[in-house]
Write a structure and sequence with these properties.
CATH superfamily: Glycosyl hydrolase domain, family 43
CATH class: Mainly Beta
Structural class: mainly beta
Largest sheet: 5 strands, mixed
Distance between the termini: 16 Å
Number of domains: 1
Order of helices and strands: HEEEEEEEEEEEEEEEEEEEEEE
Strand content: 35-45%
Number of strands: 22
Strand order of the largest sheet: 15-19-18-17-16
Protein name: Glycosyl hydrolases family 43
Helix content: under 10%
Number of helices: 1
CATH topology: Tachylectin-2, Chain A
Family: Belongs to the glycosyl hydrolase 43 family.
CATH architecture: 5 Propeller
Bound molecules: beta-L-arabinofuranose
InterPro entries: Glyco_hydro_43, Glyco_hydro_beta-prop_sf, Glycosyl_Hydrlase_43_Enz
Shape: globular
Keywords: Carbohydrate metabolism, Glycosidase, Hydrolase, Polysaccharide degradation, Xylan degradation
GO molecular function: hydrolase activity, hydrolyzing O-glycosyl compounds
Length: 339
């Protein structure tokens, strides 16, 4: 939701109409990546802080420094903050802006994937390891070789393969890359050209590196054509996520400047994916970012909004709500505030 419409919002009324409330309110949390590990829901969010850095299109005001892990008790719905799981000062290669993370589990070890800016101002993605889903996590000394831009989402397929999806335009710097190579002169395509695409790479067995050159994943319209850059309501902006339902692969993402969470359906982890519709209508705050987590036979959408901070875009709160796949495989669109 654009910043200029926030002045007109009555937040008390809006909170009454919200379909869910913040899971925690002692800190601001955003970009929730949720996983069902060891019979419990764990959320790996960004930890939003007040930076006093003015709003800009590069997201400089998102100046996060650390990560907390939050778990949710399914019975009571009570959320527990397990404290600082990783701080930027402990990451040798990173300087600032610890943006949206994700986590994975394999053979008793837990992996936290996170983007951060290096001293040269370029985003890369790193990994940190722990013996517990709660952390603390020990970072690898270097960022993942060949990684770039933001918003890692690591998906474990049923055959035991893991894939990282990543990328984000504007502040996420994806527009500076073509074929995995950075050039500061590169910009977004023209509105009538195909939009930039999210990136995927299969992970090595130890989950610390890419086992292949990252490649683009195609998002197609109903005619099998790539979505265009000017199709702001549907084209990829940031916040990749992957989940599987009834044997199909659902790639979901944020459309950024139009504030939707959308999805596209494919037959394998590399796509192509065909645009399927909207998962979440706009929330209060500029950004929208989500994850989808299966807990036994139910699916939940984790998302954030800026209702607790009364509309401050970089002070967000994580929420959760049940998500429904319809009989035809489409996802029922969620409206975050009832009318
Ligand atoms: O939290 C910082 C950035 O805002 C994330 O990386 C984006 O996905 C957006 O939510």
């Amino acid at each position: 939701m654009p910043e200029d419409s926030i002045d007109h919002i009555d937040f008390d009324k809006l909170n009454e109409k919200a379909i869910s409330q913040p899971l925690v309110n002692h800190i601001y949390t955003a970009d929730p990546s949720a996983h069902y590990f060891d019979g419990k829901i764990y959320i790996y969010p960004s930890h939003d802080i007040e930076s006093n850095i003015p709003f800009d299109d590069l997201g400089s005001h998102f100046a996060m420094e650390d990560y907390h892990v939050i778990s949710v008790d399914r019975e009571s719905g009570e959320a527990t903050d397990h404290g600082v799981a990783l701080h930027v000062k402990d990451v040798a290669w990173a300087e600032k802006q610890m943006w949206a993370p994700d986590a994975a589990h394999k053979n008793g070890k837990y992996y936290l994937y996170f983007p951060a800016k290096k001293a040269d101002g370029i985003f890369q993605i790193g990994v940190a390891v722990s013996n517990s889903p709660k952390g603390p996590f020990t970072p690898e000394p270097e960022a993942i070789k060949g990684s770039y831009t933001i918003d890692p989402a690591v998906f474990e397929d049923e055959d035991g393969s893991y894939y990282m999806y990543f990328g984000g335009i504007w502040g996420g710097q994806l527009q500076k890359y073509r074929n995995n190579v950075y050039n500061s002169n590169n910009e977004l395509p023209k509105p009538n050209e195909p939009a930039l695409l999210p990136i995927v790479a299969k992970m090595t067995d130890d989950l610390l590196e890419f086992s292949e050159e990252p490649k683009e994943i195609k998002i197609l319209d109903e005619n099998g054509e790539l979505l265009l850059e000017g199709d702001n309501d549907r084209r990829f902006f940031e916040a990749s996520w992957m989940h599987k339902y009834n044997g199909k692969y659902y790639f979901s993402y944020s459309t950024g400047d139009t504030h939707f969470i959308c999805y596209a359906i494919g037959d394998n982890p590399y796509g192509p994916f065909t645009y399927g519709g909207r998962i979440l209508e706009p929330v209060v705050g500029w950004t929208s970012h989500h994850s989808i987590c299966q807990v036994e036979d139910k699916f939940y959408l984790f998302y954030h909004d800026s209702s607790l901070s009364k509309g401050v875009t970089h002070l967000r709160s994580v929420k959760m709500v049940e998500l429904e796949h319809q009989a035809d495989g489409h996802i029922k669109t969620i409206t975050p505030y009832s009318s």
